[in-house]
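Key result, reporting period 2: structure in, sequence out.
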């Protein structure tokens, strides 16, 4: 079965890279891990993606080892960039790397500015930090969480704990009691020698990570 993993990388081939901004202005986000902004498709929305350059997992199928290590470089970013694009976007997506492994003050400022502008807010996360007290404080600012289940943790019980739900429920969309939807965008399960992926997602999953090829 052909899963076309790398045809569905999160930043699509037809995405438009935004121009770099200068360092002036008091709303500058001083975070070396925030390095890239692109316009992406977030069906049915147009989303501004803010990519954070660090993740602690070290998955074997990681598409960019430089970004994983935090050595991918930095593009200056201002909160005013969100203002400049608010008329042509519907949402903001924080992605990585792992956005919640960063300076949470910066994350809060981005989410709050987006909500103040009436934009939908999304987070693509591996879920490891979601239940930390300081991250939980951000939940009211997040409309949607795309939970990226990676191969090392599938079937090991981690996401049973994170979701506070067993895997034998309908895992297409899992709802947390706070009414934040978790869409498992690469829930791969091993059934003997057969590997299958659930693809009918509410929030277009755009990166598929195999547990077995």
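The corresponding designed sequence is given below.
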């Amino acid at each position: 079965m052909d899963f076309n993993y790398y045809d569905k990388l999160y930043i699509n081939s037809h995405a438009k890279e935004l121009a770099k901004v200068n360092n002036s202005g008091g709303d500058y986000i001083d975070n070396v891990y925030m390095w890239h902004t692109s316009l992406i498709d977030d069906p049915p929305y147009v989303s501004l993606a803010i990519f954070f350059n660090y993740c602690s997992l070290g998955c074997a199928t990681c598409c960019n080892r430089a970004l994983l290590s935090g050595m991918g470089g930095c593009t200056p970013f201002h909160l005013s960039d969100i203002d400049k694009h608010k008329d042509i976007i519907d949402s903001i997506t924080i992605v990585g790397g792992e956005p919640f492994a960063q300076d949470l003050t910066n994350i809060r400022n981005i989410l709050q500015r987006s909500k103040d502008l009436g934009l939908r807010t999304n987070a693509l996360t591996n879920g490891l930090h979601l239940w930390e007290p300081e991250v939980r404080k951000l939940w009211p600012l997040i409309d949607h969480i795309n939970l990226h289940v990676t191969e090392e943790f599938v079937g090991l019980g981690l996401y049973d704990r994170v979701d506070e739900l067993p895997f034998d429920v309908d895992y297409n969309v899992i709802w947390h009691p706070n009414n934040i939807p978790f869409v498992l965008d690469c829930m791969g399960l091993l059934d003997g020698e057969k590997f299958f992926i659930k693809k009918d997602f509410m929030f277009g999953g755009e990166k598929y990570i195999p547990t077995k090829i």
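The beta strands are 16-17, 34-42, 45-52, 91-96, 120-125, 144-147, 174-175, 181-184, 188-191, 194-197. Residues 5-197 form a domain with the TIM Barrel fold (CATH 3.20.20). This case is discussed further under Risks and Mitigation.
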